[in-house]
Amino acid sequence: MKFKTIFILFNIVLIFSFAFIFLMPFFLLGGVYSLAFWSRNWPLAVFFLAVLGVFNIFFANNWKLFSLVEKEDWQALSAWLTDRVFNKHRVGRRYVRLLVNASLLRSDTALIERLETMLAERYPAVLRRDAVLFGAARLLKNDPVASEVFLAPLVDARGVENAPWLGFYHAFTLILLKKPLDAIPRLRETLGSKDPILSLLSAYLLGSLCAAASDDSQKDELVSIAEVQRKELAKRYSPERWSRETERAKAEVHVVILSKLIDDAGAWMFVASEKKASTG
Q1: What does pTM read for this prediction?
Q2: What phi, psi does 213 have (nearest 5°)?
Q3: Which backbone phi and psi does 157 adopt, to 5 degrees?
Q4: pLDDT band at residue 36, thresholds of 50, 70 and 90?
Q5: What is the DSSP string of 155-175?
């Protein structure tokens, strides 16, 4: 739905609701009593007008942003956000994430690096907050050494959003560096995550790449705990439900970047279940 349509419909709903509440005493009680009613309940009218005013101010302040997103004009959106972030120092969650997303869509990794540098120097708390986003962007550069250097000090830092995903990204980077044994502790932590996608990815890597690099005793243990988690998730999700779950999650950049790995893990979960069912 277009933003202009949302704006108009929301205004119509608010105005209709206010008009209904305002006129209801008149129809039920008559003119004299309705005046008495509103003389005692005028704060309700002020509240409705305040809500209407705040909503319209919000849309007015963000009209340019909404219009550019709706048009999918990533070049213009990136330029507009660059001005807001770098010149006006608007480093709120929405602006930072939209700028990174727009830059990724344009394959403009240089702008992401510039943003990361600026945040590290001036707003380190913001960089920690969105560390997962920048870690995901770094992964696209195929430089696991630089990614590990960036992620390592942030994994256990305070103020990080999506901390379990950051831990997984660090573990995945270690695997890319051919250090799967170092990744095991992190993957054990995320194995029991409430996020089913994160949990499955952890089980998949533990039971495959990490197990393959381990000695026999640890290998059996890793394969076993991975299998337990795989079975538990396979019971909870049908292929159709899992597909909906992954599509919903892919609205996040740090998830969509791992699409191939997620697809492989999903195939492992259901193919293994089908094999066991056919031999059972």
Answers
A1: 0.79
A2: -90, -5
A3: -80, 155
A4: confident
A5: TT-TT-TTHHHHHHHHHHHHH
